[in-house]
Amino acid sequence: MYIIVGLGNPTSQYARTRHNVGFDTIDVLADKYNISVEDKKYKALYGKGVIEGQKVILAKPQTYMNLSGESVRELVDYFKIDEKEELIVIYDDISLEPGQIRLRGKGSAGGHNGIKSIIAHLGGSEFKRVKVGVGEKPSGWDLADYVLGRFSKEDREVIDKALERAAQAAVMMMTQGIDAAMNEYNRKG
């Protein structure tokens, strides 16, 4: 069984912001595979389903970004998964151009507070990630204001395509493994 967690902030105030591309990618997967992500437990909205023959939990932590690890820890413990093999976390990355995606099998938080929280609660940084590029913050902008802001019309079109690719990448991580997925998706463009 896999758990795919998309990071974001709850409430409509944050819908479709840069920081919520993880939630948006979960919505893409939920729509494509007809999985309802409406049950409330483990400090998350979640749903159970099957993707390409794999049992999966799709989850959107409702703790706010900086406390995402609380929800992820509860999910990992309850469903007794191996976080190194069966956990995939999808989130925004300001060091990537809008629409670019990057897959990793482990790594540091890179300044991302949601990932810092997950690393702290899991006690390690070895879990699969799908990073969705949202672009660098403009000079003089506050980082929080930038990531909690919405995309321009042009960037939104690029991001919507990236969300589809991020969803496909997560599925490929489950079905063909991290190395095959990284080879396919970690190319420029």
Q: Number of helical segments? A: 7
Strand order of the largest sheet: 2-3-4-1-5-7-6
Following the backbone from N to C, one meets helices and strands in this order, namely EHEEEHHEEHEHHH
Helix content: 25-40%
The mean pLDDT is 95
* Uncertain residue segments: none
Strand content: 15-25%
What summary fits the major beta sheet?
7 strands, mixed
The multimeric state of the shown protein is single chain
Query: Based on CA inertia axes, which overall geometry fits?
Result: globular
Q: What's the total count of β strands? A: 7
Q: What does this 3D model show about the protein?
A:
With 189 residues, the chain is of the alpha/beta class. The protein contains seven helices and seven strands; from the N terminus they run E-H-E-E-E-H-H-E-E-H-E-H-H-H. The protein has helices spanning 21-32, 68-79, 83-86, 113-122, 143-147, 153-176, 178-185, and strands at residues 2-6, 39-41, 44-51, 54-61, 87-93, 101-104, 128-133. Strands 2-3-4-1-5-7-6 form a seven-stranded mixed beta sheet, with helices on both faces. Helix 1 (21-32) crosses helix 6, helix 2 packs parallel to helix 4 and helix 6 (153-176) runs antiparallel to helix 7 (178-185). It is globular. The protein starts with a strand and ends with a helix. The mean pLDDT is 95.
